[in-house]
Amino acid sequence: FSASPLPGSPMPKESAVHDLAAGTVGGICQVLVGHPFNTVKVRLQTASPGVYKGALDCLKQTVTKEGFLGLYKGMSSPLVGIGAINATLFFASGVGQQMLANVKYGGDRKKITLPEYALCGCFAGAVQSVVATPVELIMVRLQTQHTLSPNKVLYRGPIDCIGKLYKANGIGGLFQGFSATLVRDMMQFTGYIFAYESVKSALKDENGKISTVNTLFAGGCAGIVAQVTQLPMDVVKSRMQTQDPNNKVYANTMKCIRSTFAEYGIGGFFKGFGPVLLRAFPANAVTFLGLEMTLEFLRGE
Is residue 16 scored above 60 in pLDDT? Predict the structure, then answer.
């Protein structure tokens, strides 16, 4: 997760251009560090019972069968889409904050409370899910094609994947799992901003400022909270997105939730928990590092 300005901070005049550039760099850093964890997580979430004994076994099997680069399958999709996702997310967050401030505080966003920032995060998550759904769908399909079709390459890359999904099901084929993504992102960005603002407030110095190290720490902690918050619906989203749209196992999101619970119990909604926690802190810390370095460069600081 990355943002400029950080949640709760005043937006500079150049924020639109800077957000896109810094968010893209931060997002690329996040993908480079976090994608192997994400590949293991998705495979654990979508594999049939007994395929993997756990995260380490999944990692071992992936590297043995596909090489180290197998952990980076599907990476080009989030690399390309991360700028659009971040730009959408933080534009929506800024719009939400400004609308709320205009109604309650005469336009002064500094007066927005922590619960209100969390509400804006929820709104932003809903908006950005429109962009995140197709990007993550392509990523998940590429990550899991070896498991779903061991003897046949289903997609040669992201463009081929997009083309085949569109040809088979039209534009709707690119939004498979949208409702689950919508709920997931509303939950995770609510938790993320709430956690970030809480930790940031606790780490401010006597002048109300926060150091780079503490900013990274706050971002890492918030990332953990967000990932734990969104994991149950992320499992549902992954299962919805990996099914054959022409031969669906789950007719809708609620059917997927009920089936997952019936088959695995409550623990089924926390598949991939280990990789998620291992990824959350370093990926978010690196995201904020890339973000801040880019912003400093653009501002000539």
Answer: no
